[in-house]
Amino acid sequence: MDFTCDTKAKHVTQVTDEHLLDHFINHAKSDTLGRISMLWLDYAAIQKNAGATECLELAKLHSIAVDFPKSGVPAVIPKTLKLARSTPRPHWRELKNGPTYDCDSIIGLLYDKVVVAMDRGGDFRYHDSVAGRHWNRQGQLLCYLNNNGRKKLMRHLEKAYKNEIPESAGLHPDDDSHDLDNHCIYFAEQQKIMYDNELVQLMNRYKIHAEGEILTGCIRKFHKWNKKRQHDLAEEVKRQCTSLRRTCRDNFFREVDRICDTNIFASLKDDDGEGYDEAIDAMEEAILHDGRQRRRNTEVRDDDAQQFCFSEKDIEQMSLVAKKMASSYYHVTYDPTFVNEAMEDEDNESRSDETNRNKEGYHILFSFPWIVADIIAKGIHDTNI
Prior knowledge:
The chain is mainly alpha-helical.
């Protein structure tokens, strides 16, 4: 959403004590940022659509409210957007003096699984998402299996893995007669090995052993070497993880381009040259938006305009291959049979190689398919599973 506030605060040549007093009093009286945020959540839950008219109006007001401390221009909530006290609110709002209703939105589901379970004395140490991994004394879910973790991992993967996801993309993992499917799975496996190795190296470098913490930068416990620079370390970790995920996502689209023989990267002299980001964006738009936006103009060295255009046939083929490959990313990460065979092969091939092991066991990482989560979701949406 692109919104620019037209209202500007009055300019003064010299700030006096009276100006400061007025500013802080007005801020205390007119700061509506919190109310606007909660109203947006209420309307999004009630309308079941974040793009509802009320949500868009509140988003504009939110932009004004964010700038209020420096602009002095308050965001005034109109009466038409205010909700009466008698209006039922989502149950996760925890309102004590008003009607509520059971909200089945993502926030509601998370609330039920976390807050309600904790209120009832639930112990998350045995939740399915643990999947054979274990907790340390600081309450961090470590990314490697304990001694008896492999059986638990397979049991939980069997519950979590959905055959419908590869089936929705036309992927047949158990049929060796499909050359494209076999290539997609092989490519996904190689990419996962590279991704896991790079992520483990980052975790070892910064002494972080929880996958969720290194991906988000929300680190619960820092190593003693890093306690004095926690903020800088968290930002650096997020930057490097973002770079790793971007590299893997670029590799994904380059392989789609190679398989489909669209040659979108053929005119680019190097991976980081001019037009590279535009080429990736063009493929994303063609695959995710069914070609509704097919053109991308980018500057090239001869100052001419290069256009990335795809025919209907190219878009259909790229979409098919991309969905198969994205489903392969899901398959090599969560399919219990594939994961078990991969772990057995690793045992047989290099028992003495400790690259991907530490003193506590195998590293088990689950974030790899989320690199192409939007394409996996599109495959599910297109087939209505």
